[in-house]
């Protein structure tokens, strides 16, 4: 939360306070708004000579949704009821009816409600309902334990105006909170889909290795035996070619099995796995690949696997689209973050990928980075080339 301003009732009118508070609330980070609203309520209390205030939010069916409440030193805050509760008091608010008690709190609350809200000893109470976007949003309440039992008309007007400012601020926070929840759900879904994808890859890799690779080995032996039994040179040559094709297919199948489930990552570690993937592309496409890796603390398996998949996806894109002759891969570590960068000297890309979603492969790279609270930035300089820039914060749980 931004630094708390200091308000002095002696040299600041209630109108000036409202403007100052409104501007200050706009400057606060969204996640800090509940605490900021409570500070605003506490700052406003002396201006209306109250000892307790609450901002109350109702659901569309007139039930209690939530509240922010403050009290002056020496007094207790309102005891909040359970979410979803219904009462005659709340029904009055939902109808937009001003609720005023001057001297006798039993005029507006029954005994149960007084006990529930811990309102014993209050000599004056007001609840001012107001609308947001044309609907009753809730209300702002103020209570006095000492002082005048009467509420002036200008005080009621000021309380309503102040409440509307706070309600708009709270709506901003509520919208942000819902967005955060949806983002968390999407992140969980993305993580779940990637986990399932890895499980399927692992199963397919095992099937290729345990079943099809063995069968391919048997075919290779049979093809070799066949060539040895033939006498005619042309037939013998054809058998040799068949044997070579089967061997090539077996090697391709082994490479596919390794790419689906990189056992090298678990056996020899991240650096070796990354360099192996670089050598694979260098061999296939005759691309010069240079690597620069800082010493790293041991990363957990999930982060290691996702860094490997990011490199794998990026190098596949280079092989398919970049027409590159060289690639530079760096992995740098500091106390604050892990910086993973892949640069090629290919033809680049015309898309503004920082503003557009880009290809499915780039979306996958971005999602993998976001799983670890990181970021993925894609850029293509005017003179060609393409840069994948990954930043992962150095959070302790990402390391073993």
TrEMBL record:
<dbReference type="InterPro" id="IPR003594">
    <property type="entry name" value="HATPase_dom"/>
</dbReference>
<feature type="domain" description="Signal transduction histidine kinase subgroup 3 dimerisation and phosphoacceptor">
    <location>
        <begin position="200"/>
        <end position="260"/>
    </location>
</feature>
<dbReference type="InterPro" id="IPR011712">
    <property type="entry name" value="Sig_transdc_His_kin_sub3_dim/P"/>
</dbReference>
<dbReference type="GO" id="GO:0016020">
    <property type="term" value="C:membrane"/>
</dbReference>
<feature type="domain" description="Histidine kinase/HSP90-like ATPase">
    <location>
        <begin position="305"/>
        <end position="393"/>
    </location>
</feature>
<keyword id="KW-0902">Two-component regulatory system</keyword>
<dbReference type="InterPro" id="IPR050482">
    <property type="entry name" value="Sensor_HK_TwoCompSys"/>
</dbReference>
<dbReference type="GO" id="GO:0046983">
    <property type="term" value="F:protein dimerization activity"/>
</dbReference>
<dbReference type="Pfam" id="PF07730">
    <property type="entry name" value="HisKA_3"/>
</dbReference>
<dbReference type="Pfam" id="PF02518">
    <property type="entry name" value="HATPase_c"/>
</dbReference>
<keyword id="KW-0808">Transferase</keyword>
<dbReference type="InterPro" id="IPR029016">
    <property type="entry name" value="GAF-like_dom_sf"/>
</dbReference>
<protein>
    <submittedName>
        <fullName>Sensor histidine kinase</fullName>
    </submittedName>
</protein>
<dbReference type="InterPro" id="IPR036890">
    <property type="entry name" value="HATPase_C_sf"/>
</dbReference>
<dbReference type="GO" id="GO:0000155">
    <property type="term" value="F:phosphorelay sensor kinase activity"/>
</dbReference>
<keyword id="KW-0418">Kinase</keyword>
